[in-house]
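Before the break, one more example. Copy the sequence into your notebook; we will annotate it together after we see the structure.
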Amino acid sequence: MRTLVFDTHSYDRAFLDAANAGRHLLEYTTAQLDAQTAALARGFDAVCLFVNDRADAAAMAALAAGGVRTIVQRSTGYNNLDLEAAARHGIACFRVRDYSPHAVAEFAVALLQTLNRKTHRAYNRTREHNFRLAGLLGRDLHGQTVGVVGTGRIGAIFARIMHGFGCLILAHDVRPHPDVQALGVRYVPLDALLAESDIVSLHVPLVPATHHLLDAAALSRCRRGVTIVNTSRGKLIDTEALIGALQSGHVGGVALDVYEEEEGKFFRDLSDQVLDDEVLARLMTFPNVLLTSHQAFFTHEAMTTIAGTTIANLDAAAAGAPSPNRLAPG
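Here is what the structure looks like once it is written out:
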């Protein structure tokens, strides 16, 4: 299948080319998909998208008009796809159901420990020959209460890691995970989890019910001084409300690998530009905020699986074969 890969970086091309081995004609663009850039895909059979490509109704119509009949999403999340519009235009959509849940869970722990023990600040200090410890005081994780919101593959692994630290684990999910229950984890309503947890880590997908899951009201129900970790989707947190909770001291620290308005910023080098996002700029002024650029998934193992599954999805689409990775509206 002739496929245009949107939002391409050098690492995407390397892994996709290795997985493809000449089976499909892959062409690459650094442009992100939207209703305007969809014209670039005219004459292609398929497009390959990432999380910040916007395949809304207008983009779907433009893709269909140009002959595209398949979308392969090279991620697990697909909130950027209008599946109803895709169905109307006869576009089959696929995703990567699973790649390396360990990659994201382990990175969530890395963020938490970096923020807690301030290793990022210590690193910068010692490079300037400043070896003082003032301002670097952390806390033992052992004995703290960790609330895990969402115990799918990633959340379950995160819970197991934190259990290994000797933490008390609370969990919230519509479907309790038997492996998590086997650890002795107690499932509780979200309000109870927020009220009782020293640390809250988010591992749920972005759907209408989870948009701004942590809004001003939810943040106010958190234990004062709570640490929040988000390696899932930025829009799970109301950033304006989070800034208010940081300013008041109600939230003690935040480690974010995602941001609700990251489109057009993350995965880009903007070091020679003025940041045109006042909310993000304010967020980054807090010393107790740690922000990374949506890299939790980014391991060799995960990228290999993502590329392999993406090519397998193109194979299935070309053959008209059934696939567990095909998405349906609703």
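The radius of gyration is 21 Å. Residues 300-319 form the longest helix (20 residues). Try to locate both features in your own notes.
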